[in-house]
Design a protein that fits this description.
Blueprint (H helix, E strand, L loop, with lengths): L1 H20 L8 H21 L2 H25 L2
Length: 79
C-alpha cells in the first residue's frame, strides 16, 4: 500500500507538470495546485516511511508551497 500511495503521488506531480507544459493547466489553476499539493504530500509520506529524509524535505516544501499558492488563488478569487 505504501508503494501505491508513493507512486500515485509521483504520478500526480508528473501529470500536473505535463498538463502545464502542454498548456492545459496554468500555474494558478486550483486543479494544478491541488495536484501538486496532494502529489507532493503523498510523495513526502512515502519518503518518510522509506527513511529518505532529503526527499521528505523536498516534497514537504513543495506541498507547502502549493498549499500557500492555492490559498492565495482562492482568496483572490473570492474578492
Amino acid at each position: 500500500m505504501m508503494t501505491v500511495l508513493g507512486s500515485l503521488g509521483v504520478f500526480l506531480l508528473l501529470l500536473a507538470f505535463v498538463l502545464n507544459l502542454i498548456r492545459k493547466l496554468s500555474e494558478s489553476d486550483p486543479r494544478y495546485l491541488m495536484m501538486n499539493a496532494c502529489g507532493a504530500a503523498a510523495a513526502a509520506w512515502y519518503a518518510a516511511a522509506s527513511g529518505s529524509w532529503p526527499f521528505v524535505v523536498l516534497e514537504s516544501v513543495w506541498a507547502a508551497a502549493a498549499i500557500v499558492r492555492l490559498g492565495g488563488v482562492i482568496k483572490k478569487g473570492s474578492r
